Amino acid sequence: MTRGLIYSTRGVTASIHESLIQSMRIVETNNDKIDLISSYKTDTPKKHIQQTSGIKIDKHINSITEFYYDKAIYLSSWTDIYDALNVEFLKEYNDLYLFGGLFSTASGLRRYEKRNRIFPKDSGQIKFESVALPCIHVLALLKANREYAIKLHEISLDPLEMSIDLFHSDYVPSKNYYLYHGYDVLNLNMKRLDSLQYYLSKQTKNFIEEQFDKDVDITFGMTIFENVRQKYYEDAKNVLNKFNTVNFYLLNKITGENTFIDRDKYLTQIARSKYTIVLPAYDTTCFSIFRLLESLHNDCLPLIHKDCYIKDINTSYNTNLEELITDKPFKENDRKELLNKFKKVFLTVDRNFIT
Length: 355
Known about the structure:
Layout: E1 3-8, H1 18-23, E2 33-37, H2 44-53, E3 60-61, H3 63-70, H4 78-84, E4 95-99, H5 129-148, E5 151-155, E6 177-181, E7 191-192, H6 195-201, E8 216-224, H7 230-240, E9 246-252, H8 263-272, E10 273-278, H9 289-297, E11 301-304, H10 311-317, H11 332-346
Parallel strand pairs: 1-2, 1-4, 2-3, 4-5, 5-6, 6-7, 8-9, 8-10, 10-11
């Protein structure tokens, strides 16, 4: 019998991270028993993950959080904290799963930011719980990997995260460490993992046959956290103006405009719609794979912006998304053909954890 342990740097009870939680279900293909470690004192995250993803969680552990408040918060550096961590309790696990790497712009804990290749040989944010608790949990998993050679699987939600392979060279794993994303990102050493596809395959809906009862032409939602995104807002509006029935949801941190709806309601609108839009990610060298998968699963064809970087995802799935780079609708028969074609490409489960 094999045992796995899940940790997420993201708040697993927040609806914004529902795709992340659903992606956890693929762990059941790799381990017979699955535990969860978190910073919560109650079993709230365990119950929420089970309800949202369908995965069975055996135990919920919060001993690292207790160590943080009892001792780590008073230490002077992250290396001191790493040395003081007692991870012997992790020896029982065959696999450790980290869903989401460190990701804090204000703290410099991102790819290409100032603590890249330095952490944990520094002392920043030890007393700031929102940053420190993810850091200490990640260090615990890392230490167990380095001391006991336990397989450590890191699932990158955003390639701008500071994944463990970007830690100081004295602390990066030497073996049994695997980094994944929704498609192969060769220059970042990320391997494709069909985690969301696995969850979707367990749903009762037959996702190969399209449901044709569509009463909305196009649904799209976007955020604007940086001024540079304003250009893409204008591009999206130009596309939307070519359709009759339109749902458009916007969260603009620059102007304060907010017409967002929650994720479940948004996906309901996607399921009613013939089309949606995929814009370039905030990191323009990456592609919004979850948005693509969720739209295809809901029988909604994505129209891809011409600036989207599709080389890696095309190679990873042996396909060509250039067919979807357009700013206007297709003839209805062509839309249905393209939809079913790309559903068969992207909604199958072909790539799992490295064993």
